[in-house]
Amino acid sequence: MTDDRSTTLASRLAAFAATSRFETLPEPVVASVRDRVLDTLGIELAASARGIGAAAMAVAAERSGTPAATVIGGEALAAGEAAFVNGVLAHSLDFDDTHLPSVLHPSASIVPACLAAAEAAGATDGETIAAIAVGIEITVRLGLGGYADGVNHFFERGWHATSICGTLGAAASAARLRGLDATATRDAIGIAASMSAGLLEANRSGGTVKRLHCGIAARAGIEAAQLAAAGYTAPASVLEGRFGFYRAYVEAAGDEELVTAGLGTRWELPGIHFKPYPCNHYTHAGIDAALAIRDRRGSIDPERIARIELGTAGPALRTIGEPRAEKVRPQSGYHAQFSGPFTVAAALLGGGGLGLWLDDFTDERARDPRLLALAERVQTFVDPACDEVFPRAFPAVLRVHFDDGSVEEARIMENRGGPQRPLSAEELHRKFTINAGLALPEPAVAELANAVRGLGSDPSAHSVPGLMAGTRAAAPVAS
């Protein structure tokens, strides 16, 4: 990589962020942004209704300055604090979208950051959509820079690329919404690189800190743009430099081609996976397989199941299959969302929503003796065919052995919700409706959906304040 200040990686990303315009965005990109906003708001509303963000809200209210942006539910805080709370809500249910092979969740950081920054800045709908588009694109491309030789090096080192790269993407978006030029946007990205962080150990062994990651990224991105606007600067070589972002996180200079190839003309954004199930994405192919076997047999008596084999890629198995004792008996409903054995058992028994839903991951369900007994019968293993395509896909093979000697097998090589098996418009709408319906009455859910679907139809409109006011809800219930 070159270290010329005008052609460094951060400079090129900043120029892309600062110069992209709504009018030149491809229609599939604009349509995908609307879908991401709808999906994210629905998840935030569901999390808010369950009281999950209450502690984050209390902390943010202590920190907040002049109210400028709306938190889900209608209360106003400083832009960074509103982005923090909404980012926590967006990622707390593990229902947010996923990009492959970067293995990160971009919308849960970028949408909250952009809606808060847009509301505070009085941005138009066209500016807001463009900021979301470039923020998501920069986030996932930075994640791609840590992917080489079939290995996601962020993940292998225990880094949560979602929050690490999301911080920089949020900074680029917030800088754009503040009207910063390419140089100041590059400084915002560089400042954000010193603010980004996130560890993945909670995926394996529990704790709720991961719920904070996207909120921290959204807030830090806004703060980085504020600091750049105030005159703070960063090294142009912040990404590829000797002591820069990629060498610190993945012990390499980063793959410039993966980050910048076709930037502005070939968009990753429309191909980002939507999640049909509220759980770690590595569990989804196993769920798909369990649902396929259940559909094939009509119904399943768990007492007739002798044993179950779940095969995945090795890196995925380390998250959803290890430590085995904790995966077959998860500590909580949240912990169960990261368990291959539990999610397979839940899918075989039959769940809600689009196959499994939030009610399948309550603390009560995580203690259900029938579910736990079935989860105990799940043995996990590394499947070579799954290993070969990971992380370009998160495949799985499932074999269910019955007490009469019969075996049902399903192999899922492409996740439901991805570009090869996309959720239909009806399924996306249903996901939003059942999530938002936890917090809002039916007429308000329909009104909010219509408002999001119309976002950008008049690029000069200022719809974000009304959009966020439409999330005003009754008091949250305890989680």
- Would you give the CATH topology of the largest domain? 2-methylcitrate dehydratase PrpD
Cα shape: globular
- Do you know the CATH architecture of the largest domain? Orthogonal Bundle
Number of helices: 24
Rg (CA only): 22 Å
Average pLDDT metric: 94
Oligomer: single chain
**pLDDT < 50 runs, ≥5 residues:** none
Question: Largest sheet, if any?
Answer: 4 strands, mixed
Strand-pairing-aware structural class: alpha+beta
The number of domains is 2
Structural descriptors:
single chain, 479 residues, 2-methylcitrate dehydratase PrpD, 60s Ribosomal Protein L30, Chain: A, four-stranded mixed β-sheet, two-stranded antiparallel sheet, globular
Set down the secondary structure blueprint.
Elements lengths: L8 H11 L7 H23 L4 H10 L5 E2 L5 E2 L1 H14 L14 H15 L3 H20 L2 E2 L2 E2 H4 L4 H17 L4 H12 L7 H5 L7 H17 L15 H6 L5 H5 L23 H14 L7 E8 L1 H7 L3 H5 L4 H4 L3 H10 L13 H4 L2 H8 L1 E5 L1 H6 L6 E7 L4 E6 L12 H12 L5 H12 L10 H6 L10
Parallel strand pairs: 5-6
Antiparallel strand pairs: 1-2, 3-4, 5-7, 7-8
Helix pairs in contact: 1-8, 1-9, 2-4, 2-6, 2-22, 3-4, 4-5, 4-11, 5-6, 5-8, 5-11, 6-8, 8-9, 8-11, 9-11, 14-18, 18-20, 22-23
Verbal overview:
It is a single chain. With 479 residues, the protein is α+β, with helices and mostly antiparallel strands. The protein has two domains: 9-271, 2-methylcitrate dehydratase PrpD, CATH 1.10.4100.10; 281-412, 2-methylcitrate dehydratase PrpD (60s Ribosomal Protein L30, Chain: A). Helices cover 52% and strands 7% of the residues. The protein is built from 24 helices and eight strands. The chain has helices spanning 9-19, 27-49, 54-63, 79-92, 107-121, 125-144, 153-156, 161-177, 182-193, 201-205, 213-229, 245-250, 256-260, 284-297, 314-320, 324-328, 333-336, 340-349, 363-366, 369-376, 384-389, 425-436, 442-453, 464-469, and strands at residues 69-70, 76-77, 147-148, 151-152, 305-312, 378-382, 396-402, 407-412. The strands form three sheets. Strands 6-5-7-8 form a four-stranded mixed β-sheet. It has a two-stranded antiparallel ribbon with strand order 1-2. Strands 3-4 form a two-stranded antiparallel ribbon. α2 crosses α4, α5 (107-121) runs parallel beside α8 and α18 crosses α20 (369-376). The longest helix has 23 residues, at 27-49. It starts with 8 loop residues before the first helix and ends in a 10-residue tail after the last helix.
